[in-house]
Amino acid sequence: MKKVIVIGAGVAGLASAIRLQHAGYDVEIYEKESMPGGKMHRIKKEGYEFDLGPTIVMMPELYREIFELAGRNPDDYIPMQKLTPMYSAYFKNGTEKLDVSNDLVQLMELFEGVNEQDAAGFLRYISDLYQRFTIAKHHFLQRPFRQQKDFYNLETLTQGLKLRTLGNAESSMAKYIKDKRLRDVISFQTLYIGIAPSKSPSLYTIIPMIEFLYGIWFIEGGMHRMATAMAQLFEELGGKIHLNTPVEEIMIQSGRATGIRTADGMVYADYVMCNADFPYAKKELVKNIAAKGKYTDDYIDKMAYSCSCFVLYLGMDKKYEEVDNMHNFIFSDDLDENIKQIFDGRKLTDPSVYMYIASKKEPSMAPAGKDGLYILMPISELSVAQYEWNEETIAYYRDKALAKVEKLPGMKQIRNEIITETYVTPQEFKKSFNAYNGATFGLQPTLLQSNHLRPQSKATHCENLYFTGSSTHPGAGVPIVLLSSKIATDELILDDRE
After folding, report:
1. Rounded CA separation 257/293 (Å)
2. Which end of the chain is less congested by CB atoms within 10 angstroms, N or C?
3. What is the side-by-side order of every strand in the sheet holding 256-262?
4. Which alpha helices (DSSP H) does 6-113 contain, by range?
């Protein structure tokens, strides 16, 4: 039985380990943190529980697939419920609210409530994006680009032209929908894969399209349950997880990965699957210069990185019944300027925030009669930020976040209703999760960092070494990272069989 070491128990690392263990390999995971999940972490404080990172479940079939692969019933591990409506979008200091559903009748009522032209435009948008989505799914998102010829061939280039990737998400939406609020609701979601709508290839407006067509879901017990369930399944299959064991180096001899080095010494293996953030791994773990290939330290520094996030986790002294939904997006009065400030590295003057109240669906995540608030603000990553992260910066962004939320119904007194408080800054994303530059979503999915131009699963200058996670092809977001794990394990198995 051949041995595989997986570096990191993030979503892609766990999924890769399950796939390989199920395929007959002897797999061990080495994780630097005290619990599995990576950014799918859990914060516990005084009876309140918070998902640290991802909170929205899209494309649930990809979550379920990893359990079905092993012959398990996903409902025994990650029971889900569909959310209707999906979320609320607030504008003009919380005085205007749009409830967004994936029910077509309710969606048409929402768009017709603005004007019939935008309703007609919305239907054209859905139709156009669905066609492009199916092309991307079958020809790009689920396949590797091991060699140049895998992309530069007549069939792939023909399909690529159909994607019309040269336009950006912002201009693409403007062709369909004129009302700025409705465009913002759709196009801003590229921020949650780390890129500005004005820089994002237009194809990435498929993110809200997937929500509109298939809905969003909630895992009972919160998103961290997905991580613990995958870890449980992996151990049931015979795998082993080493927690609190950071990897210091990927050992390479004669152009071949032979194992890892930890503080306890060398661990040898036939293959290494790295789920550490690709830029960090290439710079810090791959110390063999020849094995870096084009990804030298200088090259890594020059790549484009996603935005980061400032997140508050607040245990509150009451429940907020006036806020209907668990997912809430509160928009800046000038979203375009807000996003420009993020990627220019300036301090945000009027940020947009996302508020998640898990205790609305999962009461056990807060004490009886109380709510926990997760408030996320997209901000600049560390290399572009024109300011230092210190107590003054934290206080500044905390005030900005609370100022947005306290405008919502029933939340005027939230500053006086906080019992417990925790936060995560770009510095924590860098330190705890090895996110390069504190970039929460890894490499930006720009046109020049997508598909065959994005780091691939199979190392180019080292045998028996593979990469998976948000900075590798096909990109960021939990469903896409789950696809990354499938591509990476298929690549490893292909090489092993050959």
Report:
1. 14
2. C
3. 247-253, 256-262, 265-268
4. 11-22, 60-69, 104-112
Q: What's the whole-number mean pLDDT along residues 331-337?
A: 93
pLDDT band at 168 (very low <50, low <70, confident <90, very high): low
What gap in Å lies between CA 454 and CA 164, rounded to an integer? 18
- Number of Cβ within 10 Å of residue 99's Cβ equals 14
Distance of CA 130 to the CA centre of its chain: 22
Q: Which amino acid is at 413?
A: Q
Alpha-carbon gap, residue 252 to 374, rounded angstroms: 42
Residue pair 343/437 in contact (Cβ under 8 Å)? The answer is no
User: By CB neighbour count within 10 A (0-12 exposed, 13-18 middle, 19+ buried), where does 112 fall?
Assistant: middle
* Contact in structure between 442 and 306 (CB atoms under 8 Å): yes
Q: What is the pLDDT of residue 49?
A: 97
Question: Residue 247 in contact with residue 261, Cβ under 8 Å?
Answer: yes
- Kindly give, in sequence order, each residue whose CB lies less than 8 Å from that of residue 127, ignoring residues fewer than 6 positions away: none
pLDDT digits (tens, 9 = 90+) for 233-253: 999 999 999 999 999 999 999
